[in-house]
């Protein structure tokens, strides 16, 4: 038992929150040095699903001419049906509250079945154009299936796939790298507004879900996606748009940062708080740079060079202090 745990346990005893007998039992248990492998085993299960689905993709790519399209689709369909059979057979059915399978392996079986379903529909559209020229259906149908599986089987990983599919359906890539490298963001502002609207809809859904008590533990997933989508889209538009349009996204980013500041404290979510600070800091610096473009600082450039190191060092110190303060608040 490490020194910190021993001191914490003694503090509980001194405050009469535990008895002497309970203190001895806790000390004896900790001295056994037993540790859980639950997280490690789940990580290996997750990696096995990713490797399995990736392996199927590689197999299809390397042997597409020799195996044949019908054989590949048939094999995929058989695997999907088998996976869903065991998932439905062992599930507790849809419930508004958080549920879980009796065996954790089934959670990853749901994930595998969902990923393979996306592969199956995408392959069907790519090879045979099953949906004709309605390419959006090839994205929308897997998205609907993913949302159904996420809520029916209570699976957060599948929910992340569903939200990603929803973003792709409206023309977005939800990873920061894809958003910042997406040329469509640079050519027009409509996609930036679409991203903000999608993020807003995700926030509204979390509010509604909380009111009706529908899978409230999904709230952190929705808010994480909303934070990244709104913030990255706003920052992108702050950088690349002129003629006063960028000021609109400055206000959007400011409002988003304020909202997620409040929500991160309510939920005690460190991830939301940290990313909110990072996005707000980036947006603030871009905003200040935009203001500097409108003012002639040629006579004060030496002063600016001297101030910048102090500014960045002060920013780092302030960031550390904010994180420490937040940690104290959520630990209280």
From TrEMBL:
<dbReference type="InterPro" id="IPR018677">
    <property type="entry name" value="DUF2157"/>
</dbReference>
<feature type="transmembrane region" description="Helical">
    <location>
        <begin position="132"/>
        <end position="153"/>
    </location>
</feature>
<feature type="transmembrane region" description="Helical">
    <location>
        <begin position="67"/>
        <end position="88"/>
    </location>
</feature>
<feature type="transmembrane region" description="Helical">
    <location>
        <begin position="300"/>
        <end position="320"/>
    </location>
</feature>
<feature type="transmembrane region" description="Helical">
    <location>
        <begin position="108"/>
        <end position="126"/>
    </location>
</feature>
<feature type="transmembrane region" description="Helical">
    <location>
        <begin position="220"/>
        <end position="239"/>
    </location>
</feature>
<keyword id="KW-1133">Transmembrane helix</keyword>
<feature type="transmembrane region" description="Helical">
    <location>
        <begin position="158"/>
        <end position="175"/>
    </location>
</feature>
<keyword id="KW-0812">Transmembrane</keyword>
<feature type="transmembrane region" description="Helical">
    <location>
        <begin position="43"/>
        <end position="61"/>
    </location>
</feature>
<feature type="transmembrane region" description="Helical">
    <location>
        <begin position="245"/>
        <end position="263"/>
    </location>
</feature>
<feature type="transmembrane region" description="Helical">
    <location>
        <begin position="270"/>
        <end position="288"/>
    </location>
</feature>
<protein>
    <submittedName>
        <fullName>DUF2157 domain-containing protein</fullName>
    </submittedName>
</protein>
<dbReference type="Pfam" id="PF09925">
    <property type="entry name" value="DUF2157"/>
</dbReference>
<feature type="transmembrane region" description="Helical">
    <location>
        <begin position="190"/>
        <end position="208"/>
    </location>
</feature>
<keyword id="KW-0472">Membrane</keyword>
<feature type="domain" description="DUF2157">
    <location>
        <begin position="12"/>
        <end position="158"/>
    </location>
</feature>
